[in-house]
Fold:
Amino acid sequence: MKRIGLLALASSFAIAAAAPAHAGIFIAYSTNGGTTWNLLASDGGTQTSTGSGAAGSTTVAAGYQFNVGATGYPFSAQPDFLTNSINVQSAGNGASTLLVAFTQTNMNSFTGTLGSSFTANSLMGSAQNVTISSYYSASNALYGGTLLQSKNFTTGPSTFVGTNALALTGPFSETTLYTLNFGAGNGTFNSTAQLTAVPEPATWGMMIMGFGLMGAALRSRKTKVAFA
Structure:
């Protein structure tokens, strides 16, 4: 068991060394097609190799009410970026298009499959449709880059899942972008999205084998019961 403990400790150090030192989350909106971005929230680059970062805001700006949040886990150099409870209300504006972007920067090198999961929970009132898209940027840019997946939603609840094989040298960034189209009057949009590395079959096999070996080691221990 001491050997197992040493191996686990060595693995944790290797994982920490492989992950980025600091990654950051940035959430912003644009009302002019992305020419100008206005920051809603940021975690200030507080993500570390052994933890997570989170950013969120409830803000009224430019005639919209934003309730946005994101959490990122750059663990083991495997991208894991969650955007949750994006809720945008148009407070009686005229017809308009709103962009809301969630970016996680300074990701480490990554070779594997990245999954993009989009869910439009609801579109109500003047919220006509939304296009949810995912991107990566080899130059570590904010709010865009090379398109991975994109899906247009006109009703909710509705879900889309897509995958991409990637080979990226860090630092790179990943972004989820919402392009919201509102008609005249009040409208509300609510959605969730997730960007997650998809384990390869060989990785799943190694994990299962590892758990099996640990279970066998635990079963082989003899427990002595002392009776008074």
In short: Strands lie at 24-30, 38-42, 53-61, 64-72, 80-90, 96-107, 110-137, 146-153, 158-168, 172-198. The chain is about 15% helix and 55% strand. Residues 1-21, 202-211 have pLDDT under 50 and may be disordered. The longest strand covers residues 110-137.
